[in-house]
Structure formats: C-alpha cells, structure tokens
Write a structure and sequence with these properties.
This protein is an alpha+beta fold. The protein is built from four helices and four strands.
Length: 153
C-alpha cells in the first residue's frame, strides 16, 4: 500500500477503525484499551527484539523489529467471511473435473476455488474456517501436478 493511500485511509477513517498517534497512551483510548497493558506489551516486545529472542511467542529473530518510537497505528479488524459456494469441481487429487466428472488433464485447483465441498452446505460462518482446506488442497494439488508433469516425460 502506498504511503499516500495509507495516510488518506487514516485521515478519512471510514468505519471508525484506523488511527495513528505519537504515543501509546493516546493510541489506547481509541478502543478503550488499558494503557498500562498496551505499554507493557510493547515494552516486552521491544525487549525481545533487542535480545533477538521472543520469549512469549517464539517469533523468529529475523522478524523481531523494535518499535521504540511513534507514530503508532491501531486498527480494528472486523470479522468477515470469504466463502466459496459452488467452486470448481475436483477429484481427490485436486484435478479439475468437468460437469460429467471427467478429469481435465493437467489442470489442478486449490484454495477457495476448489471448495466444491461446500456446494450445497452453508457451514462457513467462522472466519478462517477454510484455512486448513486451502493449505491442504494447495499442497496436494502441487504434489499431484508434479507427478503429472513427470509422467509426460
């Protein structure tokens, strides 16, 4: 996101959900957060970043970047659903199939595009409910595509 778009988003603040402040104390007030807890959380994180070891969540040292000076940003992220109802038909190898269930050679599907499993069932009411399917289908589609390519030689 360009910095100009970022600044415009903060300025317009559609949805009353994105704020920028120079201090944590000012940041905390936007969502009625306990200032002392927010400050302690950031102080702990900065300590972990300086020592190169995250003692709380074991975040990799390459990704520990201290945030010692403002400005600070806070955003409220509201839940939303990304669902696929219908999707592209596929078999157990995540090969795309036509309406008559015939495999389309060399075409594989994964992620939300392959959620034919939800074709007539509306059970996706929780954010992230298809994450396991997305990861698993991508992994298996790639492995099966690799085998298919090897079979062409």
């Amino acid at each position: 996101m360009s910095s100009n778009l970022w600044e415009i988003s903060i300025e317009t603040n559609e949805g009353d959900s994105l704020y920028k402040e120079d201090s944590l104390e000012d940041l905390a007030k936007h969502f009625d957060l306990p200032k002392d807890v927010l400050t302690k959380t950031l102080n702990d994180y900065n300590k972990f970043a300086r020592q190169g070891k995250d003692e709380e969540f074991a975040k990799g040292s390459d990704n520990l970047i201290p945030m010692e000076e403002g400005p600070y940003y806070i955003a409220r992220l509201d839940p939303s659903n990304l669902i696929g109802v219908g999707g592209i038909g596929s078999n157990r190898k995540f090969e795309a199939i036509d309406p008559d269930f015939n495999t389309i050679p060399g075409l594989y599907v994964a992620g939300m595009d392959s959620t034919m499993q939800y074709r007539n069932v509306y059970t996706i009411t929780l954010g992230g409910s298809a994450c396991a399917h997305n990861v698993n289908s991508g992994r298996h589609a790639a492995m099966n595509a690799k085998d298919y390519i090897a079979s062409l030689r």
